[in-house]
Design goal:
It is a single chain. By secondary structure, the protein is of the alpha/beta class. The protein has 8 helices and 11 strands. Strands 2-1-3-5-7 form a 5-stranded parallel β-sheet, with helices on both faces. A 4-stranded parallel β-sheet has the order 8-9-10-11, with helices on both faces. Strand 9 (about 180-185), helix 7 (about 190-200) and strand 10 form a beta-alpha-beta unit. Helix 6 (about 160-175) crosses helix 7 (about 190-200). The radius of gyration is 20 Å and the shape is elongated.
Length: about 250
């Protein structure tokens, strides 16, 4: 089973990984079922009904309520899907009561990395930090919100490019009152729109402000100013899972 989130991951780098996995597994006589679902539990239930014994999840798996909405409750997988093997190839946030054995996590501890990245950037580029309120950075966002709530982006659109334009407007407004040295966003498409809008307004990047994004999508290197971005190696993680399945 190949499970994606039809809303959150649409158009991002998981799709090439899904295609490669399906192609390789099918070539070796392993039947695949690809499914996009609203929630992971809903998708797992449907794939189980289709006879899948193993599922690769191309979506963040969160089991820590302090970070974001949990994907499932402790013990729920064993109860509902006994024997089902799950591979999480995107970032994975585990809680203290996370299940063991049934889920193989190849994801990066994104929330820890992001917090360290903010700390390092502010050390070398002192000043206020603006951040998009994305799921894996809730602890960091909370700290900024307590200190200066104006430094958190307001997301009032589902279109990432529109969000980027709004982020640029918020920066231009807040930079009149605050010395902002770093802007962190959780989506390269948002960052693309943000950078373009700031350049149109005469903001010099990175001389005046650094823009650091997340996803590491291919197009980020072809912008007017190549984007500083990082992400989870989903394609490499998927390849590791496929090789494991093929080698039994």
């Amino acid at each position: 089973g190949l499970l994606t989130n039809r809303h959150w991951r649409a158009g991002q780098k998981c799709m090439p990984a899904v295609f490669c996995a399906e192609q390789q597994l099918t070539a070796h006589g392993i039947e695949c079922r690809q499914l996009s679902s609203r929630t992971q539990l809903e998708g797992l239930a449907q794939l189980r009904e289709l006879g899948c014994g193993e599922v690769i999840i191309f979506d963040p798996v969160v089991e820590n309520a302090h970070v974001g909405a949990v994907s499932w409750q402790p013990g729920e997988l064993e109860q509902r899907f006994p024997g089902l093997k799950i591979y999480a190839v995107d970032y994975s946030v585990s809680g203290e009561a996370s299940c063991s054995g049934q889920v193989s996590r190849l994801g990066v501890a994104v929330w820890d990395f992001q917090e360290k990245l903010v700390e390092i950037m502010q050390k070398y580029y002192p000043g206020e930090c603006m951040m998009q309120s994305w799921r894996c950075s809730q602890l960091q966002v909370r700290k900024i919100r307590e200190r200066n709530p104006e430094m958190i982006f307001k997301l009032d659109s589902e279109n990432p490019f529109k969000i980027g334009e709004k982020c640029a407007e918020q920066y231009l407004e807040q930079s009149k009152k605050h010395r902002i040295s770093n802007i962190f966003v959780g989506d390269d498409r948002i960052a693309c729109s943000l950078v373009n809008r700031l350049l149109q307004c005469g903001v010099r990047i990175p001389d005046e402000v650094n823009v650091i994004s997340f996803d590491n999508l291919d197009f980020s290197q072809y912008l007017a100013i190549p984007l500083t971005t990082w992400g989870v190696p989903i394609i490499r993680h998927t390849q590791m899972v496929v090789e494991s399945i093929l080698n039994n």
